[in-house]
Amino acid sequence: MKISARNIIKGTVAAIEKGATTAHVKIEIMPGQIVTAAVTNEAVDSLKLVVGGPAYAVIKASDVMVAVD
């Protein structure tokens, strides 16, 4: 597989929280460091994601926004 994204971090699936259509997949990239991705439930099934299994966090974004006051 080749991909244009440059931020590819290997980790382990720590949790999968499925909602009605969207799942939040938590990937532990280092002990205590979690990256969370929102993907479709269909993607979780298609990728055969399971807690404890390997996964990559692939990050390619034009914006990352978080704010607090």
TrEMBL record:
It comes from the Bacteria. Keywords: Molybdenum. The keyword Membrane does not apply. It holds the Pfam family TOBE. Residues 2-68 form the Mop domain. This is Transporter.
